[in-house]
Amino acid sequence: MIRTKEDAKRALEPCDYNNEFYMCDGRRVNSLANLVKALRHTKADVYSYHVNESKNDFSMWINDVFKDSKLARSIYKLSKTNTIKKISLRLRELKKRSK
């Protein structure tokens, strides 16, 4: 959970190599900002591989790696477009909190 200024700063940083997200199309993502960029160019079949009725890999990654349970919960059942919007909003929020 992100509670402090330091938590917000950490959530904005790229994760280490061992915690990168590997998309099924071969791309790797290492930060929330990079996830937004990647999702903007992700085809529907790739998105639905990672997000479907039984799972949301992006939500789990955000929760496990960046400890942002609020964001993880908020995107769990969203479409790709709404996921991009929600993560973008959260990034702006985190940037303000990290100052």
Give a description of the structure:
With 99 residues, the protein is mostly helical. It has one domain. Helices cover 60% and strands 8% of the residues. The protein is built from 6 helices and 4 strands. It has helices at residues 5-12, 32-40, 44-50, 57-66, 69-75, 80-97; strands spanning 21-22, 28-29, 51-52, 55-56. The protein has a two-stranded antiparallel ribbon with strand order 1-2. 23% of the residues are buried.
Give the beta-strand count. Answer: 4
Low-confidence runs of at least 5 consecutive residues: none
Largest sheet: 2 strands, antiparallel
The succession of helices and strands, N to C, reads HEEHHEEHHH
Shape assignment? globular
Considering DSSP H and I runs of 4 or more, what fraction of the residues is helical? 55-70%
Question: What value does the Rg take, in angstroms?
Answer: 13 Å
Q: Could you say which structural class the secondary elements and strand pairing correspond to?
A: mainly alpha
Strand order of the largest sheet: 1-2
Percentage beta strand: 5-15%
Termini gap: 18 Å
Number of domains: 1
Mean pLDDT: 96
Helix tally equals 6
Short description:
The chain is mainly α and 99 residues long. The protein contains 6 helices and 4 strands. The chain has helices spanning 5-12, 32-40, 44-50, 57-66, 69-75, 80-97; strands at residues 21-22, 28-29, 51-52, 55-56.
